[in-house]
């Protein structure tokens, strides 16, 4: 999946739509049993280069050589949801979305080697959602996911019994939030 639309500008400073596509790409790769996800172009110039492929693309960090500055793009912060909380040795856990607007919520879950479970949730929809996360034998956790957001949930505890990703499943049920929420 590309986060640059074909025919569009190579670099768009502050683009959250590209950050969404970036997050979806990472989530899809790990949910299809990818053991990692690599961004070969973590830092590029304002034109979107240079890079190994010789084309011009957006990147999490954009370097402005003339001003001696760099800019952290929204993609940079998306990467943080994975690189900060999903540590080396973590295992992917199956996760799924059930019920209302499940195509607008993307999720990836991981068991960290030190015991906590990490769930990354991306809401690409225009509506905020209340989620009920079924954590297998642990019970339910309820959380609020605003529209157009990415959130990381860490479920503390010693979940070492979930050694195989076939033994623990996380189901997230969604329902629209009330419009009169204060």
From TrEMBL:
Question: According to its UniProt record, which reaction does this protein catalyse?
Answer: a beta-D-glucosyl-(1<->1')-N-acylsphing-4-enine + H2O = an N-acylsphing-4-enine + D-glucose
The protein here is known as: Glucosylceramidase
Residues in Glycosyl hydrolase family 30 TIM-barrel domain copies: 10-86
Keywords of the record: Glycosidase, Hydrolase, Lipid metabolism, Signal, Sphingolipid metabolism
Q: Which residues form the signal peptide?
A: none
- Which InterPro entries does this entry report, sorted A to Z? GH, GH30_C, Glyco_hydro_30, Glyco_hydro_30_TIM-barrel, Glyco_hydro_b
Q: Can you tell me which family this protein belongs to? A: Belongs to the glycosyl hydrolase 30 family.
Q: One MF term in GO for this entry?
A: glucosylceramidase activity
């Amino acid at each position: 999946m590309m986060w640059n639309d074909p025919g569009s500008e190579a670099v768009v400073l502050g683009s959250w739509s590209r950050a969404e596509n970036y997050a979806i790409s990472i989530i899809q790769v790990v949910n299809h049993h990818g053991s990692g996800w690599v961004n070969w172009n973590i830092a590029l110039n304002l034109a979107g280069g240079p890079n190994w492929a010789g084309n011009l693309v957006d990147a999490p960090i954009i370097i402005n050589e003339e001003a001696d500055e760099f800019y952290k793009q929204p993609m940079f912060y998306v990467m943080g949801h994975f690189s900060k909380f999903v540590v080396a040795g973590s295992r992917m856990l199956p996760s799924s979305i059930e019920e209302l607007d499940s195509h607008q919520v993307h999720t990836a879950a991981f068991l960290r080697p030190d015991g906590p479970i990490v769930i990354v949730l991306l809401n690409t929809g225009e509506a905020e959602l209340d989620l009920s996360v079924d954590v297998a034998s642990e019970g339910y956790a309820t959380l609020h996911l605003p529209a157009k957001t990415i959130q990381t949930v860490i479920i503390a505890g010693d979940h070492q019994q979930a050694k195989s990703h076939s033994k623990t499943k996380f189901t997230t049920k969604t329902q629209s939030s009330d419009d009169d929420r204060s």
